[in-house]
Amino acid sequence: MSTAPQLADPQVSRTKFNREVEEFRQLAGDYARRGWLLVEAEFPRVFVVMAAPQLKPPPIVTGVLLDYTDYDLRPPSVQLADPFSREPYKAGELPTSLLRQVETDAMPIGLALPPGVVAPRMIQQQPLMQSYGPEELPFLCIAGVREYHEHPAHSGDRWELHRRDGAGRLVRILEVIDTYGIRPVNGYGVNLVPQVSGLTQGEVPA
Amino acid sequence: MTPKQIEIAIVVNGQPTVVHANPNSPLKTVIPKALEATGNTGQPPENWELRDDNGTLLDTSKKIASFNFPAGVRLLLNLKAGVGGA
Fold first, then answer.
1. What is the mean predicted confidence (pLDDT) over B42-70?
2. Which residues lie closer than 8 Å to A162 by C-beta, 6 or more apart?
3. N or C end of chain A: smaller count of CB under 10 Å?
4. Which CATH topology does A10-107+118-201 take?
C-alpha cells in the first residue's frame, strides 16, 4: 500500500471518499447478495471482503483494501488482502490472480511462422495481478489503480486520462475483481493423499 | 404508434440513475443515456459493460423487450477492465 502524503485538499478527498462509501451503502443489500461485504470505511481506507455465494458452503475468497488518500488527484491504491488479518497478500499467497482471456497475435516464445504467413489469433490467459516474484506485493494491473499508474511501464497511460471515467471508483474496482476472481470460482480444489494402510479381504473362507 | 417507454434504473460505477427506453430498441441504447445522465462521458459506450443485479453480463445487442425485465429492474453499468498486464 502506497504511503505517499496527502497533496490534494483533504476535504475534497474526504468528500469524494464519502460519496463512494455512501453510494455503496445505498445498494449494500444488492452487493451483499453478490458476496461483497463492506467491513470498514474510515477515510482514507475501505476494507471489503468478497465471498463466492455460488458455492455451498460459500468461501470468503479475498479481502480488498483500498486507500483513497489524495483522491482523485491520484487514483486509489488497491491491494488484495487477507480477509481476517487485512495483511496484503504477497504474490505467492494470492487466492486468485484474476485471470482473464485476451486475444493476441503474438506467437509463443520459441515458435515462429514462415515469412508471409499471417499469425493466427491466439487466446492467452493473463493475470491482472502482476508482480516480479512470489515474495513481492502484487498489484492490480488496470487503469484506475494507483500502483498501475505509478508503474514505469505505464507512464504513457496517465491517471488524468481515466480520472473522469470513474476508473478509480469503488464499485468499478470491485466489479473487476468480482468478474475475474470471484464469479469464475466454481468449486473447491481438493488434494487427496491416499495411504496404504494394509490389505483388505473379501469373503472369508470356511 | 410509438411504443410506451419503460424506465430502467442503471447504476453507473455505483452511481444510480434512471433512463427511459423504447422496449423495441437494443439494450445498448440505454448506455449512452445513462453515461450522459451521470456525467461519465470520457469513454465511448463500447468500453462499458452492462450486467443484471446478479452480476450476469447482458447481451446489449438484444432488444430490451426480450429480457422481460420486471418493474423496478436495476442494471449495473461499469467500465471494462481494459488492457492489463505490466
1. 92
2. A75, A143, A144, A168, B42
3. C
4. Ubiquitin Conjugating Enzyme (3.10.110)
